Amino acid sequence: MNFTQHYEDVKLELQVAPLIDVVFLLLIYFMVTASLIKKEADISFILPASVPPSKMIQVPIEALIFILDDGTVEMDGLRFPPTDRMLDALSIQVAGLKEIADSQQSPFSVTVTPDADAYHRRVVDVMDACAAAGVQNLSFGKSTM
Q1: What is residue 3's predicted lDDT score, i.e. its pLDDT?
Q2: Are 109 and 60 in contact (CB under 8 A)?
Q3: Which residue ranges in the chain fall short of pLDDT 70?
Q4: What is the tens place of the pLDDT at every residue in 33-55?
Q5: Which of 7, 42, 90, 114 is within CB 3.0–4.6 Å of 67 for a Cys-Cys bond?
Q6: DSSP 61-81
Q7: Of 97, 98, 99, 122, whose CA–CA distance to 112 is shortest?
Q8: Confidence at residue 143, expressed as pLDDT on a 0 to 100 scale
Q9: For residue 108, what are the contacts with CB-CB under 8 A and spacing of at least 6?
């Protein structure tokens, strides 16, 4: 028994005709599907010719000032120590916010929220600082702490 076969006599060829058929079918498929996609320039839309400007909405600017039980005053992440009775830095900050509101022609208000155990004199200090900044609209909030 001879198990070895000789392939030397067999001639191998690559058949190109089915390969060309497949390539042309793919080409036709992609050409047909590409024409179904709308181009961006083909989408119709109308640009507005003249649109009157809408009424400006005035967004009020509010400064929130918290007075803690130890006398520390907080505003927008800034802390003012209880030893500072004049609160000049607070007055400057509030005046800056008021100036921004005035430049935008927006209403400006300050809400003071003292802790239930805060001293009355510290509340008066904050009110004096707001008065020095020229605040006209001052209100008090209820402490949630």
Answers
A1: 61
A2: yes
A3: 1-10, 35-43, 51, 144-145
A4: 776 666 666 667 777 777 677 77
A5: 114
A6: EEEEEEE-TTS-EEETTEEE-
A7: 122
A8: 77
A9: 60, 61, 62, 63, 97, 98, 101, 102, 135, 136, 137
Torsion of CA 55, 99, 129, 90, to 10 degrees: 110
Q: Which two tokens stand for residue 11?
A: 């001639």
End-to-end CA distance of the chain: 100
Kindly give, in sequence order, each residue whose CB lies less than 8 Å from that of residue 87, ignoring residues fewer than 6 positions away: 73, 80, 125, 126, 128, 129
pTM for the whole structure:
0.61
User: In 1-137, where do the E strands start and end?
Assistant: 61-67, 73-75, 78-80, 108-114
Residue 140 belongs to what H/E stretch?
strand 138-140
Nearest to 112 by CA among 143, 84, 82, 136: 143
Q: Would strands 73-75 and 108-114 be described as parallel, antiparallel, or unpaired?
A: unpaired
Query: How crowded is the C-beta side of 109, counted as CA atoms within 13 Å?
Result: 10
Residues 6+ apart with CB under 8 A from 61: 97, 100, 101, 104, 106, 107, 108, 109
Backbone phi, then psi, for 113, in 5-degree steps? -120, 95
